[in-house]
From TrEMBL:
This is SIMPL domain-containing protein. Keywords: Membrane, Transmembrane, Transmembrane helix. It comes from Candidatus Magasanikbacteria bacterium RIFCSPLOWO2_02_FULL_44_11. The keyword Transmembrane helix applies. Signal peptide: none annotated.
Length: 284
């Protein structure tokens, strides 16, 4: 039964509270709107920065239209270095060559000469790594119009390249051909076994020469010398100085070898090219 006031007007019933699900939906919609507004603000900021950078770059391009691009200012100088070192190694070749119609006999004859000679070289302190043999066998022919080509025999040649590190043994080595009957002897050459230290010293001289030239050139041009931009080097041809003097006994090599030897020296030359950056006095 409906309630009525004393004047018989109906009394309104109190309104019921809204359901909880409706309140949650409203809160979710409000949070989503806030997130969207933040994202839009972030995008707007990045878009503003992008447009600003693009405009600045376009302005820079416009500023340099019709102007040449500024080139890096450099100059290059060359330097040379030369170091002389004393020769410390000698090389010579000793061998024996013979022929026989029987190739086995030719080999045996050759071995009788070269085997004891090789043994004597080792007894003088010449190491295995400093001995290199060149052994060949080939037929030799005679030719006549009547008989045509006729086999004369087989030539056996055994040459040994000898590297002498102890230069006091040079005379003894050169005396061996006459002692054992070797019939092939080459000239004697002197050189430096390891030139790396000489190259390093020559390189330092070349760099010092280049730097001195660069400083003088910068002073003459009225500019400031900057850092090194590039560097290159090359080794110039080094001419070894062979023995300057070599005197033999009256009977030649067969009489016991040379009595006086000058080993000489060798030059090592290095060249460098250095490119320096330079600055004007105002911009430095």
């Amino acid at each position: 039964m409906a309630l009525r006031k004393m004047d018989n007007t109906p009394v309104e019933a109190p309104m019921a509270n809204p359901p909880q699900s409706q309140m949650i939906n409203k809160d979710h919609e409000s949070f989503t709107k806030k997130i969207l507004m933040v994202l839009m603000a972030v995008v707007l900021v990045y878009l503003t920065l992008f447009l600003g950078t693009l405009m600045r770059n376009n302005l820079k391009k416009y500023r340099f239209i019709g102007q040449a691009e500024q080139m890096e200012r450099t100059f290059a100088v060359n330097g040379v270095g030369k170091v002389t070192g004393k020769n410390d190694v000698a090389e010579t070749t000793i061998g024996f060559s013979n022929t026989d119609k029987d190739v086995a006999k030719a080999q045996e004859t050759n071995r009788k000469v070269m085997d004891p000679l090789l043994k004597e070289l080792k007894s003088l302190g010449i190491g295995e790594n400093d001995l290199q043999s060149n052994y060949t066998i080939y037929p030799e022919y005679d030719y006549t119009p009547e008989r045509g080509q006729q086999l004369r025999g087989f030539r056996v040649t055994n040459n040994i390249i000898v590297k002498i590190r102890d230069l006091t043994k040079v005379t003894a080595v050169l005396a061996l051909p006459s002692k054992f009957g070797a019939n092939e002897v080459s000239g004697l050459n002197f050189t430096i076994d390891d030139t790396e230290n000489l190259r390093n010293d020559a390189r330092l001289e070349a760099l010092a020469d280049a730097k001195s030239k660069a400083r003088q050139l910068a002073e003459n041009l009225g500019v400031v010398l900057g850092e090194v931009v590039s560097y290159s080097e090359y080794e110039a041809t080094a001419y070894p100085y062979s023995m300057n003097q070599m005197t033999f006994a009256k009977e030649g090599v067969g009489g016991g070898g040379p009595t006086e030897i000058a080993t000489g020296s060798r030059e090592v030359n290095m060249g460098v090219t250095v490119v320096y950056k330079i600055y004007s006095n105002q911009s430095w």
